[in-house]
């Protein structure tokens, strides 16, 4: 007989396959993520992976396989490897994912972060490595941006992550408590989680449809410490929840998700904004960050914690000083209600309205998937080698939509939707 925990793992696997990946018979499934092992204890997510594999085969999968990486090798590489080592990445790892993407199969990425793994490592070394990595991964990211295959990012607990998030409870109970929280925010505790996700996705689509019909020319964000106006391009598209591949198969790229988002006009951001949640970037915190924008560009950046870090990041390239995303999330979202900082942007961004520095989304423009880089930028989109989410929402924030005739309408009041769908 299955334990209650095992039953929830079964439901989680079902949501991953049926909702997230919308898995189809005869497809292949590649599962990736860090292999976290210590003292001979195997990767904590292994039981979940095996359940997913079993269910995928029962659904007609032709092949299920995994590609793990040992996260502990990263700090070792940064400490002992040569500078030239930062330029290298094993081609076989890229080829495995590329093969899946080119065939239109499915890829599952399990995030099981170790928040303090790179603590003490020089951020410039990490950023240099990340930029080289992005160049290696460009063929895969191109297929991702073209929606040629289905992908999904989920989270699975591990001891270091649970220790970081839940230091107030007994260490022996933290991993199980974090699993319980993930089951909650991923709607696994619902009587029928798949149906609950279908209803949630329907609500997100209604919010997108409302905003798409309005076609606001700009949004204005107001709170005690934020006064920011963000221009929106003509024929912009609000997205949220499920997306569709180019051959019309829907999938949910992130679980959990609570946001609706679009891409702003890179040159039409004015005012000041203060972050409302810390961001952990490769072991280094940015907290209470104030950004001042003029003509779309950050002209001042100050942070109470991590001031040097945010200024290094916005200096990576010109696009890093501009916005590539604006996302709306009600303060009453399931993730916000937990009142926890997860030190993981997959989850933390879904607790709050947020902006993203850097790369914009071509899919957030009409016919955007077919635009060249030059066409996307001409339409107002931002190009950059980074995409960094920063949370700016709170229960004190109001958001207004500005119409073409300059009249305004409420979108959010006190952190909650001001319209009904």
The separation of the N and C termini measures 43 Å
Coarse morphology: globular
Q: How many DSSP-defined strands?
A: 19
* Helix fraction by DSSP (H/I, runs of at least 4): 25-40%
Outline the structure in words.
This protein is of the alpha+beta class and 421 residues long. Strand 5 and strand 6 form a beta hairpin. It has 2 domains: 4-189, 3-Layer(aba) Sandwich (Thermophilic metalloprotease-like); 211-243 and 256-417, no CATH class. The chain is globular. Mean pLDDT is 94; it is low at 36-42. Helix content is 32%, strand content 24%. Strands 5, 6, 10, 11, 12, 13, 17, 18 and 19 form a 9-stranded antiparallel β-sheet that branches. A 4-stranded parallel β-sheet has the order 2-1-3-4, sandwiched between helices. The chain has 13 helices and 19 strands.
Task: For this entry, give a set of tags.
alpha+beta, Thermophilic metalloprotease-like
Could you give a quick summary of the protein structure above?
By secondary structure, the chain is α+β, with helices and mostly antiparallel strands. It contains 13 helices and 19 strands.
């Amino acid at each position: 007989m299955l334990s209650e925990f095992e039953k929830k793992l079964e439901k989680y696997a079902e949501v991953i396959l049926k909702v997230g990946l919308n898995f189809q018979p005869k497809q292949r499934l590649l599962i990736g993520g860090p292999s976290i092992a210590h003292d001979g204890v195997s990767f904590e997510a292994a039981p979940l992976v095996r359940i997913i594999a079993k269910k995928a085969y029962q659904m007609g999968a032709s092949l299920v396989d995994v590609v793990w990486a040992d996260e502990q090798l990263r700090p070792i590489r940064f400490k002992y490897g040569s500078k030239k080592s930062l330029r290298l990445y094993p081609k076989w790892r890229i080829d495995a994912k590329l093969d899946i993407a080119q065939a239109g199969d499915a890829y599952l990425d399990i995030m099981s972060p170790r928040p303090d793994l790179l603590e003490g490592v020089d951020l410039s070394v990490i950023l240099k490595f990340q930029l080289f990595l992005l160049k290696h991964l460009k063929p895969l990211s191109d297929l991702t941006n073209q929606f040629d295959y289905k992908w999904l990012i989920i989270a699975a607990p591990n001891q270091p992550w649970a220790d970081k998030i839940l230091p107030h409870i007994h260490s022996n109970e933290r991993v199980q408590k974090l699993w319980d929280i993930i089951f909650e925010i991923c709607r696994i505790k619902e009587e029928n989680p798949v149906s609950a996700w279908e209803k949630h996705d329907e609500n997100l689509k209604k919010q997108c449809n409302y905003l798409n019909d309005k076609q606001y020319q700009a949004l204005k964000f107001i709170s005690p410490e934020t006064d920011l106006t963000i221009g929106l391009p003509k024929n912009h598209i609000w997205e949220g929840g499920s997306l569709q591949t180019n051959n019309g198969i829907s999938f949910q790229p992130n679980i959990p998700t609570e946001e609706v988002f679009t891409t702003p006009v890179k040159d039409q951001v004015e005012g000041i904004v203060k972050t409302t949640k810390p961001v952990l970037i490769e072991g280094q915190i940015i907290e209470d960050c104030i950004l001042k924008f003029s003509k779309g560009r950050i002209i001042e950046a100050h942070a109470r914690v991590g001031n040097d870090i945010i200024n290094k990041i916005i200096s990576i390239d010109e696009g890093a000083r501009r916005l590539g995303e604006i996302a709306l999330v009600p303060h009453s979202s399931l993730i916000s209600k937990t009142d926890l900082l997860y030190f993981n942007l997959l989850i933390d961004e879904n607790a709050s309205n947020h902006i993203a520095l850097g790369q914009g989304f071509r899919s957030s423009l009409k016919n955007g998937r077919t635009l060249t880089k030059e066409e996307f930028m001409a339409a107002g989109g931002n190009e950059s080698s980074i995409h960094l989410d920063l949370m700016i929402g709170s229960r004190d924030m109001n958001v207004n939509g500005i119409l073409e005739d300059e009249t305004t309408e409420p979108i959010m009041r006190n952190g909650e939707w001001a319209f009904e769908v």
